[in-house]
């Protein structure tokens, strides 16, 4: 049995302890709230610092679409030069200006005068001058094309096989080898039995061309060939 005074003392002690426990609980809650706020603030500070330091990923610029250009494949012709002279091989493409005809010409420094394959040679007079009408073969075809030119002069040719002389008509013709354009004298003769329809001799080569006998087709004709003879005698 507990005495009444002891009960009151015990009750008072319990109440006091209960109040202390309540105050400790309140303090604990306040401490937890404070720590939570501090933790949130610290977390936000860290996140903000990370956001400021880390750049947002950026996509690389899209590559530009290539512009489709059409290359100009046309050629103005080619004729390499040394000391101002055209370098040619032993065979070259030869364009007879004004006719549209292109032949494989033999380059022969042993021949004095150039010559062109001509058939049905007929002399006639025009306005008091001596002219000649003749046919030239069309390359790659069986046909002939008729040309007329004023006669420049006549030359005597001695055939080495027969020791007989032959008088040939000489005319001036304008031609191109590569991008080199020139007018020169050609004898007209039937070259059907020979390998080349055109022979380029010293009268053209002299002071104008150098022959590299180790080459063929060292020049290249332009794509746009002149359709008319300019009459330039240079």
In words, what does this structure look like?
There is one protein chain. The protein is an alpha+beta fold and 234 residues long. It has helices at 4-53, 202-205, and strands spanning 81-82, 85-88, 91-96, 101-107, 114-117, 119-126, 129-137, 144-158, 165-177, 180-189, 198-200, 209-211. Strand 8 and strand 9 (165-177) form a beta hairpin. It is built from two helices and twelve strands; from the N terminus they run H-E-E-E-E-E-E-E-E-E-E-E-H-E. It is rod-shaped, with a radius of gyration of 53 Å. The protein has two domains: 1-58; 81-211, Cathepsin D, subunit A, domain 1 (Beta Barrel). The protein has a six-stranded mixed β-barrel with strand order 3-4-11-5-10-9.
Structural class: alpha+beta
CATH architecture of the largest domain: Beta Barrel
- Give the beta-strand count: 12
Radius of gyration: 53 Å
Name the strands of the widest sheet in spatial order. 3-4-11-5-10-9
CATH superfamily of the largest domain: Acid Proteases
The tally of structural domains comes to 2
GO molecular function: peptidase activity
InterPro entries: Asp_endopeptidase, Peptidase_aspartic_dom_sf
Keywords: Hydrolase, Protease
Pfam families: Zn_protease (PF05618)
